[in-house]
């Protein structure tokens, strides 16, 4: 099941979800007391993984990825993968954009138009699960948690975590689980992240992080002060 992050219709107290049932995708509204089926779309086989954004569902079949317009029923093939070496992964990133587990140990960004607008992530072998918390992609493999930036697709941090089986972002809170433990991933305060990025002269990333922190709770005045401060530092770094 996948919850759409850009629902086509968003009344109060309703969620729009996509449910895979055999060779069908069921689009439903979930309320406090009932589930209302809106429509169903036929697919060639039961999806192994999926994510949804608006009317688009991106699904992994047994040997390829497909994006389906659940309103028109039109399905577009994206690219094939080898299920013997690649775990099918589908993660919604932004509006009409998904991150998929691709061949050659790559994480592939694909839009609903079937094109890629970002370079792939070189995330290595044995990837189990993926989560997104802007501007970072967190990748769980058999032995590590690895953090990449969506801005430059570069590795930013790696932590040892063995036996991990599940990782996801739940309303802004990141959790990772193994067979016997569940851990919360606590981010370094954004102010410290910004200072570290500026120390490394990564000004664009610092500005993007400060911009996103504004959405996460900074007042307009606080964000204005931070932006002006960063702008001043940016000028000094540039020159």
Automatic annotation (TrEMBL):
PROSITE patterns: CNH. GO terms for biological process: autophagy; endosomal vesicle fusion; protein transport. It comes from Araneus ventricosus (Orbweaver spider). It is found in: Cytoplasm. It comes from the Eukaryota. This is Transforming growth factor-beta receptor-associated protein 1. GO terms for cellular component: cytoplasm; membrane. InterPro entries: CNH_dom (IPR001180), Vam6/VPS39/TRAP1 (IPR032914). Keywords: Cytoplasm, Protein transport, Receptor, Transport. Residues 1-174 form the CNH domain. Transmembrane segments: none annotated. Pfam families: CNH.
